[in-house]
Amino acid sequence: MIENLDPTMVDWARAQFALTAMYHWIFVPLTLGLTWFIAYCHTISYRTGNEEWKRLTRFWMRLFAVNFAVGVATGIILEFEFGTNWSNYSWMVGDIFGAPLAIEGLFAFFLESTFFAVMFFGWDRVSRRFHLVSTWMVALGSNLSAVWILVANAWMQHPAGQEFNPDTARFEMNSFRDIVFSPVAVAKFTHTASSSMVLSAFFVISVSSWYLLKGRHRTMARRSIVLASVFCLLSSLFVIFTGDQSAYAVAQKQPMKLAACEGLLRGQTGADLIAIGVVKDDHDIRDDKQVTRLNIGIPELLSYLANRNFKSFVPGVRDMVYGNPEQNLLGAKQKMVKGRTALAALAAYRSDRQAGDEAGAAAARDTLRANQDYIGYGYLEKPEDAVPPIALSFYSFHFMVILGTLFPVVSVLFLLVAWRNTFEKHRGLLRVGTILLIPGMIAHWLGWIVAEVGRQPWAIQDLLPVNVAATRLSSGSVRATFFLFLFLFTVLLIAEVGIMLKQISIGPEEG
Amino acid sequence: MVFYREGFRGMTLGRSLWLVVAIKILVIFGLLKIFFFPDFLESGFSTDRQRADFVLEQLTPPIPEPTTGSESP
After folding, report:
1. What is the pLDDT of residues A250-263, one digit of tens each?
2. Cβ neighbours of residue B46 closer than 8 Å, sequence gap 6 or more
3. Do B55 and A336 touch (CB under 8 A)?
4. Which residues are within 8 A (CB) of A157 and not within 5 positions of it... i.e. 6 or more apart?
5. How confident is the model over A237-248, as pLDDT tens digits?
6. pTM, 2 dp
7. Which of residues 3-62 of B touch A (CB under 8 A)?
8. Where in chain A are the domains?
9. What ipTM score was computed for the predicted complex, to two decimals?
């Protein structure tokens, strides 16, 4: 039973999932973004027939292959973890995730795989046009794969298009369209795909900057930087737009996450967006004091971000924990009552069905239906349990936004210097360029921390908390596999970095 | 087939990468999946009805009375 669940097991299972996901996410965004970059390079090579562009395309394809080979299949481990550590959750979402993941496997992955070999082996073996189409198909297939995975993740944040079946304990899909085109899913995919393009552009700039510093492959490096800077500028501006769309979706569907990310304790009309601030070490939401200090805010921007209206009300953490009758907001306290009613109805439905009391079961089912949107709150011990870790959400969100705001500036600097061909005078910029991949990757990880930590305590928003989603296992076994993964991932990472550095060192001539 | 055969034969870096992929797949499916990650419901129960009943039992524990915390406005 849930009350016998080892709470440290849940923490270790979450840590293991986070470790696996963050490792997996080193490779995924590079794959997603590099495919578009390579497709564009290949198009220039196709149109110009220029050998230097062909050499450039083949070189970036080679580095893409290293990243793909080391990263492929690491996501499968996440599926193993679902079945072992998160069995209740896996059972309950099977009907929802089945369709998107099947489409991902059958359509997108095969599309990608089919053209993958043609992309790599096709030079001078297939027609130039078919070869180019294959490269674009790899880009399309990779990104289509991501669509379905992100749709599944978005459903956990905003469980649309479903109905809970109390006979099977499963969420059943009643609208595929609502799941695929939910505002959270659309925002999540566009934000993730565009930020992956930024990261890939940084990867190209990092490698090319190193070549320029070493005085090697100047033409290729300069061309790569020009192309990557344009790629980065356009995609980073789009990231700002999709980030705004994501924040709006969060405000509408997960307002607690937004309040935690902004450290907004009490709701405000015309709320300021905190640009920079510090979370107090001893913050406690039960005290009616500010959670943050030393704030530099942008007047009324949070209200606009959340509701597209500068004067609108944005609920704070306390409004959503204790309720706010003036704003007609139910608090976790009131939702817990509804959640417990739903859980009692579920238990009654089961026992009435077993006893053959169909009338009683029908009544219990109606009660469950009336309260099921809050069923997850029934498991909370106190209203404050509905609040995610504020400091981690706040800092992750703010550092991500700060980095994301700097990225277009960096790309403009590189574009200007590349355009004037004055890299020799700007070696400092090249040195910065060699490490650009690191802040790019950190911004990606921070984005996932915002998405996943910010929605705690939920595995499925409002419906299933993580401690109920988990399997009843001993924390020892999960801890052991955590360290096993840590070792395995470290070895794989060393292998990737080693092979990648060797290929970069060899350069575009051989391989 | 000739296309693939010649492609694989002509690989240089690709051979090392295939080796990395093969070792990884072997570790993931031959070691991790079998010894460390059994599917809890798949291996523990023989029918979907049993699995559903087990999960329903997990979902409907006796719920303790809520505590309100030290403050409520």
Report:
1. 999 999 999 999 99
2. none
3. no
4. A184, A188, A253, A254, A451, A455, A461
5. 999 999 999 999
6. 0.90
7. 3-4, 6-8, 10, 12-14, 16-18, 20-21, 24-25, 27-28, 32-33, 36-42, 48, 51-52, 55-62
8. 2-254+388-506, 261-327, 332-383
9. 0.81
